Amino acid sequence: MNRQDTFVTIATLALLGFAGTASASIGEAIHNMFTLPANTGAINAKAVSMFFGFVLISLSITVWAAKRTKSTSDFYTAGGNIGGFQNGLAICGDWCSSAALMGVAALIYSTGFDGLIYSVVPFGAWPLMMFLLADRLRNLGKYTLADIVSLRLARVPIRTLVAGASLAFVVGYLIVQMVGAGTLISNLFGLNYEMAQVIIGVLIVLYVAFGGMIATTYVQLIKAVLLLSGATFIVVAVLAKFGFSLNGLYQAAVDNHPLKTGVMQPGGLLPDPVNAISCGVMLIFGGAAMPHVLMRFFTVPDAKEARRSVAWAATFIGYFYLLTFVIGYGAIAFVMKNPDFLDANGIIIGGPNMAAIHLSEAMGGDLLLGFIAAVAFATIVAVVAGLTIAGASAISHDIYANIFRHGKATDAEVVKVSRIAALGLGVLGIVLGIAFKGQNIAYLIVLPFTISATVFFPVLFLTMYWRRLTTTGVVVGGWLGLATGILLLVVGPTIWKDILGNAAPLFPYKYPALFSMTVTFVTMIVVSLLDKSERAKAELASFDDQFVRSQTGLGAEGAVQH
Amino acid sequence: MEDIYRRIDADPRFHALARARSRLGWTLSATVLLAYFAFIFAIAFAPDWLAQPLHAGTVVTTGILAGVLVIVLCVSLTGVYIWQANRRYDGQNRAIVDEASRAP
Cβ contacts (< 8 Å) between B21 and chain A: which residues? Predict the structure, then answer.
């Protein structure tokens, strides 16, 4: 073990110590871990053993992966040696956050059909990724999104923009996941909230700092398999109760829900056409360009495996979304009127986010409950790990190696910075998770998606498809779009009116992506066309080579042979 | 490497391949976007249409079916793209690259 490993180890141990002092008492916390409040305080040894099983397996993989993580290529892309099928599963693991299982089930439980919209619309990102981006991403990419854009354009200004936006994306997404995770895990295992934050933070730092992309990939693989099999099991159990009649299930849901047939139809989630289109634009284009997902395209050896990755990912994710059509309504049918899961006022224990968890207990008792609880935990941990490695690569590869060291840093130095960055992001996640405790953070998920639709998608798309794009165009358009998106979000109904308490929002729409993405595209195009500099001429001339490489894969980064 | 790029760029078969691939990609993208925005517009403008039961005696609505169909359509089109790319484009691509790499 060299010095940097020792440093990261000591820091991680210090975090664990902090975990001890953060919880009121370790003994109490451990006792609480063995009791499930949802289960009237009875000990659920099955849930706890499955939870520890997951932690143990994932840490063993990390130890194994750490031995294989030596170069920057190992760290960021697992040496480019992951197969398309495994990568497809891992992408599914990256994509399906706890929001996809618990969140969608909760929305369907509360509002019916409107919740389903969140299963259908984000999926539109997948075919677009396949048709427009997958081949070219793999052929042009190396470690990060900024690599693709700066192939032809100026390194420093481009990387500053893309890495800056990536970090804003990662931090925004991280807060949502950490706060959701803290609430969920304290509900599931009876841990206190701060303790839950620290456990997740420590695990993530261990996975990412030591195991790099190899460990992160396997954590996501395991999570995807657990999530898909757990969800399948619930669905089969629910449908079996109705003799596999979908109509029987939906009839029971309609009978149980106060909205009656209202659960089967749109109920005003997207109140006006502009919000509807803007929300669609945000989810589809934003979803197609998320850095932690696209980074996974660089872990496969070539464009063909990149396509296979997308095809498998789309199949698994589509399948999972179809399962939510049953899980959400199953919760209405089996949880809503079941006194075991309701408090004295008839409100669901732990809030609607627990709907899927309660459903698993109703379907398969302690065993399935324990399994789904462990799945929920794995789900959160895997997504946070994916975000952390994306953030760490933006810091170490884009900012440190390319902006500050101008590409002259050694492999060992960059890996060291990556590890420290992973540690820093883990600590930041814990701190922000605790700072945002108990706040309404639903609006925060709009931020990363807006950044992705406003900056990453237009920049990547024009880089690949438009010859005339220049550095000045990207920089002016990217920063202006980013500022527009964030500004409109702040003065919009959610923050300006609901959170800051002003009488009326300055900008009437909840989703600014349609406007900010338009600003980025128009500005990038206009500024590029006006750019008559020598640099712009050279950039124009180099498009043909980039085009041939993007189409043929000739000159693309290959896999590392071990 | 630059020389090989130039030779590929000068090969009309390369540009025909790139055009064919991009035509397929854009056609499929347009189909998906059309289906998606039709779904979103139906939610915004015609919620009553989505609220209709599929047939007498069922509670399953047009909206549920539409949601399922959109997801199934996306997965199938993704399949179409990869099938075409693997069957046709990869082979042609390899031939063009090999020839350009061999040329003096």
Answer: 551
Tell me the Ramachandran region of residue A320: left when phi exceeds 0, alpha when psi lies from -120 to 50, beta otherwise: alpha
Q: A396 with A414: CB under 8 angstroms?
A: yes
In whole angstroms, give the CA distance from residue A415 to residue A402: 14
Distance from CA of A308 to the nearest CA of B (A): 7
pLDDT of residue B38: 92
- A342 forms beta bridges with A348
Q: What is the nearest CA distance from A329 to chain B, expressed in angstroms? A: 12
Contacts of A117 in chain B (CB under 8 A): 43, 67
In angstroms and rounded to an integer, the radius of gyration of the C-alpha atoms of chain A is 23
Site of tokens 């109705």:
A242
Calculated CA dihedral for residues A255, A261, A266, A268, nearest 10 degrees: -90
Q: Alpha-carbon distance A222 to A185, whole Å? A: 19
Q: A200, A205, A207: which is closest to A66 by C-alpha?
A: A207
- The owner of tokens 């050896």 is A301
pLDDT band for position A6 (cuts 50, 70, 90): low
Of the listed ranges A94-103, A547-556, B42-51, the least confidently predicted one is A94-103
Interface residue A122 vs chain B (CB under 8 A): no
Query: In the predicted model, what is the mean pLDDT of chain B?
Result: 90
- Residue of A216, A215, A214, A185 whose CA lies nearest to A198: A185
Triad A12, A17, A19: Cα angle to 5°: 95
Give the tens place of pLDDT for each residue, A200-246.
999 999 999 999 999 999 999 999 999 999 999 999 999 999 999 99
Structure tokens at A536: 């712009």
Q: What percent of chain A lies above the pLDDT cut of 90?
A: 54
Q: Do B93 and A551 touch (CB under 8 A)?
A: yes
Going along chain A from its start, the domains and CATH numbers come out as 3-445 (1.20.1730.10)
For residues A108 and A120, give the distance between their C-alpha atoms in angstroms, rounded to a whole number.
13
Chain B within 8 Å of A280 (Cβ-Cβ)? yes
**Cβ separation A270–B29 shorter than 8 A:** no
ipTM of this complex > 0.85? yes
Q: Chain A residues with CB inside 8 Å of B60's CB?
A: 246-247, 250, 264
Structure token digits, residue A219: 């954590």
CA distance A338 to chain B (A): 22
Q: What is the mean pLDDT of residues A435-451?
A: 83
Mind listing the pLDDT tens digit for each residue in A266-282?
A: 887 766 788 888 989 99
Six token digits for residue A40: 């009237």
Query: Helix, strand, coil: what percent of chain B each, to 5?
Result: 85, 0, 15
Task: Write the CA distances from A269 to A196, A446, B40, B95, integer angstroms.
Answer: 32, 15, 11, 52
Q: Assign 3-class secondary structure to A479-517.
A: HHHHHHHHHHHHCCHHHHHHHCCCCCCCCCCCCCHHHHH
Closest to A98 in 3D by CA, of A512, A300, A377: A377
A130–B81 CB contact, under 8 Å: yes
Q: Name the token pair of A525.
A: 């195009």
Burial of B40 (0-12, 13-18, 19+ CB in 10 A): buried
Label residue A369 by pLDDT band (50, 70, 90).
Answer: confident
Give the mean pLDDT of chain A: 87
